[in-house]
Task: structure prediction
Amino acid sequence: MKNTATLEEVARHAGVSTATASRALNGSTSVRQETSARVLESARALNYQPNIAARMLSGGPSDSVCLVVPSLSRQALSRFYYASLIAGAEETANRHGLHLMIKNKQDASGFFSLLDQQRVGGVLLRVGHNHSLEQRFIRRMKKTGTPFVLIGSLPDSKSDTTIYIDIIGGARALAHHFAAQGFKRILFISGPKRNADSNDRYYGFRLGLTERGYDERQLVFAQGDYTPESGLLAAREHIRQDRIDAVFAATDHAALGVLTYCASRGISVPGDIAVAGFDDQDYAAYTWPSLTTVRQPVFELGQHAVEQLLKTMETTKRSKDSMILSPKLVVRESTTRLRD
Result:
């Protein structure tokens, strides 16, 4: 019998995406057993025969997924976050028989080429830093029919599948802790301008302080960039001049700079001033004093993102499916004052 069915027709007949159909026909263990059975039955019904030469020329795209992240060349501060994210995603991808490739968000042309050539079965896109560029990526993925999951949240992508950490809630919990300790004059050291994560930390922290009766005059804002240098400079400029008694640095890296400044000036932590960070990097428990911070489940974020992507890849229907992971406040010595 003449072969007239295409892979796309098999996928449509089975009610799955083309990428899932390809993986099922290749015997990939990343496809659920019942889904594979449905695809194989559709292939038999339509008398589908794979074009081996074409598949070899295409590079076998269906077993590859792509994680797109910002350029890290000038973000040493973020390497902890992205190393954990990549590790979680890679562990889960490998477990499902998938190959994970990493693309730099600044290499838009290279990424679009992957999509146009159908070299990837699905995409994880880390969003929140460059909305205009990210919208270009989303439009291109929809145009090529590539399944995708957004890591982070975009205000105008409410119909897309997303997964993110409740950063606002984590910063809010830290604010409540500061209020319980009775701190009166607080310095917030931000991340880079227009950084969505930093803005969420500032918003959540202000919200938490407001809920505890603080007014805006009790919170001093300092522009930073997540680096220890920016933490040190902000501390030097504001701690004594503005009579600060507590600091929330938007990342543990910046908090290191604050601790260094205080040690160099004989300022007791937490006796004279409290210091907290965000992320709970490995060293946070070993600073002197140990650093209060907010732990982000970044490894788990990578794991769940791949699981969500697999679900998206196994259906032809686009649907919104959001998952929010909760951070955890970790209180250590740097903000705990002895009370009489």
